Amino acid sequence: MQTIIIGSGNVAYHLVKAFKQNNIEIHQIFGRNKAELLKISTEFNIPFSTNQLEDAELYIIAVSDSAVENVSELIKNENALVAHTSGSLPMEILKGNYRKASFYPLQTFSKTKNLDYSKIPFFIEAENQIDEKSLFELASIISENVETSDYERRKYIHLTAVFACNFVNHLFARAKEISDSQDLDFNYFIPLIDETVEKIHHLEPKSAQTGPAVRGDERVLKLHEELITDEEHLKIYQLMNESIKKMYQ
């Protein structure tokens, strides 16, 4: 299937890389950021353009959620299949007379971090069974974990991912602020972080919880609150402890 990937950010980069690693041909990459497109084009030897979107059978729109609708209007090929990669948008956000779909990889992407694409869950939705089957087969070349999913299910997958990934990473960033403020090497905490994540491969998250809040250790909780000088850190600390206490009441 002749394919064009639209975008030059983290998701677009990794889709290009995953396609190339699995010998899936990409006809063109398209976007507005010439510098980033040039980097991707050079690394993977794929033609790119910022102003001439060529005809293709499949267009995959891998841009920010806020840009999907406007970008979708650039596609004039009514015989094409067009899929976005968002977990939080319905297919109907795509504006055009072409066939519409969703091609959602559930992962956090950074250009500088290598990934095992075969482990990434892909969630597929299309307007008809033929297109759904085509996208399912395409994703299955990349990953061993592919499912169909309608928007109602997919938006809850995305919500769960925000809790499991984005919020957790934000807490890592806040923890580093505390360690930096006391001149503590954040690398001290990497084995702890690794073990915390590794543990939930074997235990339910609720069963894996440790710490003063789940133990009801008010002395330690009070000590920590006295140590915290940043108002935002204190709000987060108190909110998280209250949530833990309620879960284990």
Automatic annotation (TrEMBL):
Coiled coil: none
Domain DUF2520 span(s) in chain numbering: 120-243
InterPro entries assigned: 6-PGluconate_DH-like_C_sf (IPR008927), DUF2520 (IPR018931), NAD(P)-bd_dom_sf (IPR036291), TM1727-like_C_sf (IPR037108)
Pfam families found in the cross-reference section: DUF2520
Protein name in the entry: Putative short-subunit dehydrogenase-like oxidoreductase (DUF2520 family)
Organism: Epilithonimonas arachidiradicis
Lineage: Bacteria, Pseudomonadati, Bacteroidota, Flavobacteriia, Flavobacteriales
